[in-house]
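Module 6 notes. Inverse folding takes a fixed backbone as the condition and produces residue identities as the prediction. Think of it as a translation problem where the source language is geometry and the target language is the twenty amino acids. Below is one complete input and output pair. Work through it position by position during the lab.
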């Protein structure tokens, strides 16, 4: 398999909705979170702190808490409010799909992008394409 995507990612589809927070908006949110951010807003804090070559995934339980944490942040009267509302909307739990919030930012000075990966419910095999089915199939161990 090497450097290919993990099998579970092949089961997911990235949302076309992408929310970009520029460095200034991230700083404003960090200031709003204050010193208690890691206690009162742990998931939002993890998203804002993300800086890496890789992605940060918030899984189902963490993802489902993001909308509530954003709601507790208070009201903003500018484009940031619309972006926060969009993050709440894409992270909102759904009984019909499995979602992961995905954060990307390579450098702190670059924008933070947030989107979701969502389980694809349709398809001939319940959303599993051939590659995903092969990756998830039990392996036969001939050497045992």
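Target side of the pair, the amino acids:
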């Amino acid at each position: 398999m090497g450097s290919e995507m993990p099998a579970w990612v092949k089961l997911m589809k990235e949302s076309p909705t992408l929310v970009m927070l520029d460095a200034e908006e991230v700083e404003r949110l960090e200031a709003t979170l204050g010193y208690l951010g890691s206690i009162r807003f742990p998931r939002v804090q993890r998203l804002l702190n993300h800086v890496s070559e890789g992605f940060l995934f918030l899984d189902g339980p963490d993802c489902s808490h993001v909308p509530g944490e954003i709601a507790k942040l208070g009201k903003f009267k500018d484009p940031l409010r619309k972006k926060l509302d969009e993050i709440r909307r894409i992270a909102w739990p759904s009984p019909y799909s499995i979602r992961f919030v995905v954060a990307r930012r390579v450098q702190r000075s670059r924008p933070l992008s947030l989107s979701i990966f969502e389980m694809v419910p349709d398809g001939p095999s319940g959303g599993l394409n051939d590659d995903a089915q092969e990756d998830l199939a039990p392996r036969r161990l001939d050497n045992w």
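Reference fact for the lab report: The helical segments are 7-10, 23-33, 37-40, 42-49, 60-72, 79-91, 130-136.
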